[in-house]
Amino acid sequence: MNSFSDATAQWLVKVEETAVFAARRAGKIQMAHFRRAGMRHDRLLYDIKLETDRICEEAIVNTIRERFRDHAILTEEQGWLPGTGEALWIVDPLDGTVNFWHGLPFFCVSIACYQKEPNASPENLDLATPLAAAVLLPYTHELFTARAGQGAFFNGSRLQTPAVEHLSDAVVSVSFGKRPATMALMTRRLDALLPNVRKARCLGAAAAELCYVAAGFLGGTLYEGLKPWDFAAARLILKEAGGFFRAVESEPGNWGVLAGAPDLHEALHSICFSPQSVTHQIN
Question: Is residue 125 predicted with pLDDT exceeding 90?
């Protein structure tokens, strides 16, 4: 179908199935490379780029193009791949690259499909209308999926973010980012957070952590310096499961994210977010 005005539930099922199939293809590649000697990589400050990222991304893009040739795709490695259709795929082929490189089994594939506005570009992304999403943790065989208005699912079972009555009962994950200024900000936030939660954890894969919030494995998560591909899929999964999600673009292309169980929104927000310059916000 060429227009979302004509899109049916059956069409969205095809979109979701494509996301899942692409995620599984990438997941197989990841598991074939995980903890294997000889992986090619580029070392960056506070980060690592692997050949595995690029191979996984190529498999995902090819899968999408096989089924939806006119859709645009935004990827972490290749950037903007134009398309004339009214859909935009946002892809992180390997979220948690540093974990993967060091043999830590917490990483995932993240694939989302959004409605694309006519003037969409890497500098002018409209993230208002997510359509379908899949996040796969291949090591643990955990698959999270969602379609807009149709709920979220964990390995095929409907997902509902459980209530957390008290912040003191919550395990909350955080990330310290890649830049010194972000690290300093997150250290201050962690100082405020630690006395109020059960435990804080630094897990290193934003999309997976947001899905763990949706499932209730985490009570919340707090990130700075994310890119759209880090949260585009998990955002829909979390929202469809009933959790809260807030993303603030404090500078072009860099987002701060706060998410959690619905009961904890006010408490987490009051602790973690101080007034700041906001250019764009999504919920």
Answer: no
Other Cβ atoms closer than 10 A to 169 = 12
CB neighbour burial string for 70-79, b if at least 16 within 10 angstroms, e if fewer: ebbbbbbbee
Residue that has been written with the tokens 């890119």 in this structure: 227
| 41 Cα distance to chain centroid | 23
How far is 64 from 61, CA to CA, in rounded Å?
5
What does the alpha-carbon distance between residue 90 and residue 134 come to, in Å, rounded to a whole number?
Answer: 11
Q: Please state the three-class secondary structure of 136-180 as a single string.
A: EECCCCEEEEEECCCEEEECCEEECCCCCCCHHHCEEEECCCCCH
- When comparing pLDDT for 64 and 128, which is higher? 64
∠ CA 249-255-257, rounded to 5°: 110
Whole-angstrom distance, CA of residue 107 vs CA of residue 129: 26
Looking at residue 278, its pLDDT comes to 42
Q: How far apart are CA 175 and CA 74, in angstroms?
A: 23
pTM higher than the cut 0.85: yes
Q: How confident is the model at residue 87 (pLDDT cuts 50, 70, 90)?
A: very high
